[in-house]
Design goal:
Layout: H1 7-16, H2 35-43, E1 51-54, E2 61-63, E3 78-84, E4 97-103, E5 109-116, E6 128-129, E7 136-143, E8 146-153, E9 159-162, E10 168-169, E11 175-178, H3 181-187, E12 210-215, E13 221-226, H4 227-231, E14 243-251, E15 258-265, E16 272-280, E17 288-292, E18 297-299, E19 304-309, E20 312-317, E21 326-330, E22 337-338, E23 344-348, E24 357-364, E25 369-377, E26 393-394, E27 400-405, E28 413-418, H5 420-425
Antiparallel strand pairs: 1-28, 2-3, 3-4, 4-5, 6-7, 7-8, 8-9, 10-11, 11-12, 12-13, 14-15, 15-16, 16-17, 18-19, 19-20, 20-21, 22-23, 23-24, 24-25, 26-27, 27-28
Length: 426
Amino acid sequence: MTYRCSCTMILQLGRICALLALFADGASADPDPASDAFLERLRQTQTDLATVRPITRGPKSHWFGYYDKFQFDPTERFVLGMEADFDHRSPTRGDVIKIGMIDIEDDDRWTELGESRAWCWQQGCMLQWRPGAEDEILWNDRNGAKLVCHILNVKTNEKRTVQHAVYHVSPDGRWGLGLDFVRLGEMDRGYGYWGPPDPNRGVLAPDDSTIYLVDLETGQRRELISAAAVARILYSGATAGDKHYFNHIQWAPNGKRLLFLNRWNRPGTKWTAGTRMFTLNPAGRDLRLVNVGSSHFEWRNDEQILIWVNDAYRLFQDDGSAGPGEVVWRAPNGHQSYLPDREWLVTDTYPRGQNHEQHVYLHHVPTGRDVLLGAFYVPSGFSGEWRCDTHPRISRSGNKVVIDSTHGGDGRQMYLIDVERVIGQL
């Protein structure tokens, strides 16, 4: 496996290395110190134009996880979800979750579609509708010690299995991206999968811990870049004991590039010590540094990426310049997605304020206006690895949003927010 890192990028790395100490990892850092004032302003924007209703109920818990994939089918009638028998502990190798589909036009009827033995609380089993397909879904599972990906036609029940786990799928549905899920599970609790121990547990930056490309038709796999290759790129504050891993991969909208996060932990610690975002092409070449200190992100278009860094949502160019980014708006850290018109975003906050609430809101880029959709109380016990982030997911039209939440008192459940009138009237 080879990769190419341009001289321009190395120069830019040297120029910005000093910035690393200024940026904590967004997922664990306390957001903007002015966030209390932000939340007070946000509460004043709450609208009654948005309706919120549960689409799953206890006693079992239901959720979807991350916000970077299709939860709605193309008709926006069926919503995917996962079902678990417990909430407040880590999953073990023997814990099996159910895969299901909710018909939001038929009394939220649940149809069971399968099960998984390869999952985590934050990202589930990568359950999603396959891009470019009307009736196919996919999710990860474990077959013995082997991590695999199932592809199921929900109408015909025809199922086939690809012999590699998948993280994110290309816009045309042909190509899956994957990473070392076992190492991720050991390095960052709540992500990755439990199972056989990481064979590279004692290796700081393995050559065989990679980001890889999978042909979802043939099942063929090709390695793109390794932890060892990325770790060799200099960074500020590096120590001899830094242990590297990958998380969060996402295709660009046109499928011509992909981004990933390179993270590392320090000896004797369990928290992420640093994060860098890179992009490269599907051939594993033209590696570019985008940002140091990245947290949550979303491609705005094929050349720009919106990233929450330090105290704000900032727009970065995918050109290797690794510049400071253009501030779009200042707000606490959240999980952002552009609606199809690219003028509106939906995002959220971590639990904040005296009422320990997660706030889900819309942001209108042209005017800078925020609209609060709801504030959702988080009961005790939902923190750390088994926290329940709302992770707002949009429908194909952008008129509906589904969140995971524990505010109902019956474990983690999914709630549908209809935002069509909000967008249409504001």
